[in-house]
C-alpha cells in the first residue's frame, strides 16, 4: 500500500503543481502566456555495468506544456527574470528493446535564461520527476542489465537549449544534455541509466509577448527568518541478499532565512531510524555475529543515524525545489552496509563461492560522512504571499554522497517570523 502511494505521488505532484497552479489555474492572459513544445532527441545510452547489453542509437520523443510566467505580481518570477515552467511527457527507446526496453516519463521542469549578455538565447532546463520502465533486470533472463530493477523510477533531466531561430509563433531550438533514471535504492541492483542526448525542438507559442513590454513591479529587498519541522517515511533495501523494501523513519528541524520571498537558505538537524539495520542486528546476522557482537546490546541505537545539514530551496508559488548537503555525525551501521555492498564473490579452485567484504578505506569515510537530499515540495498555501504558517508534503531522494540511500515522503510545517525590509 505504502509503495503504491510512493509511485502515485512521484507522478502526480508535478502535474498538479507546476502545470495547474502556474499556468492553468485561471484563464490564460497576456501576462501568463503558454506554449507547446514537441521535441526529438537522439543520443547514447551509457554502459551501467560490466558486460552491459549493447545498444543502438537512443531515440526519444518529448512533448512539453508550459507557461512564461510574465506576471508582475509574482515576486519569484521577477527575481528569476521570468523563467518558464511546465511539465514534459516523454517516450524513450534506449536502443535495445529486448534487454533495456522503453521509458515513459513525466517531468515537471523550470527553465531559466543564462549568460544573456554573452549568449542571447541560451537557457538552462532542469526537470525532476518519474518514469515507468517496461524492462527490468532479471537474474535468469536479463542478468547483464543491472541498471534498472523496478518499474517505477526517479528521473532527472538537465539540458542546455539554444534558440537557433525565432518567428512570431515558433522558437526553433537545439539542445544538449543528460537524462538519468534510478529507483532511489528501493531494489538492487540499481546502477541507474545515464544518457547523453542532442535534441531539436519547436516551442510553439499560443500567445507571445515581449518581456520588455512588461510593467514590472518594484520589489524591495527583504528577508525573513523561518523555522521548520519535518517528519519523513522512507523506503530502501539493504543489499542483494536483503532485497525487500523496509522503512526509514526521519525527524528533522531547521532554521534560516528566506531572501526576497524566493531563495531559502538554512541549516538543521536530522534523526533517522533504519528498519533494515535494526532487523539485521536483532537477527544476529553474519557480520554482527562475527565482527560487531556489541551491536546486539542496543539494536535500536546502532540502527539510527543523526547529523547536521545545510539546505537551499527555490520557492516557486506552491512549489519548492530543495537541495540539502549534510554531515552524518553518527551512523555506526554503515560499516556493515559498506562491507556488504562493496564486496564481491568468486568461485575458487574447488568451485566454492568465496565472499570478499568491502574495505573500510578513505572512500568509505567520505561516503559515511557526507549526506545529500534532493526533491520537490508542495506547499498548501502559495509562498508568493509569504504566509506566516504553511504546511507542505514532499518527495525526496536521500543519498550517501552521490549514491542513493532511500526514497522518502514527508510532511512538514514552516513558520515565518516578522519580515525585515531592506531599502
Range of strand content = over 45%
**Structure class:** mainly beta
Topology as a string of helices (H) and strands (E): HEEHEEEEEEEEEHHHEEHEEHEEE
The helix content, as a percent range, equals 10-25%
Report on the structure:
It is a single chain. The chain is mostly beta strands and 423 residues long. Helices cover 14% and strands 51% of the residues. The strands form three sheets. An eight-stranded antiparallel β-barrel has the order 1-2-3-4-5-6-7-8. An eight-stranded antiparallel beta barrel has the order 9-10-11-12-13-16-17-18. A hairpin with an 8-residue loop joins strand 3 (84-93) and strand 4. The longest helix has 23 residues, at 2-24. The radius of gyration is 23 Å and the shape is flat. The N and C termini lie far apart (52 Å). Residues 8-12, 14-18 and 24-29 have low confidence and may be disordered.
Tag the structure with descriptive keywords:
14% helix, 51% strand, 423 residues
Question: What's the short version?
Answer:
With 423 residues, the protein is mostly beta strands. The protein has seven helices and 18 strands.
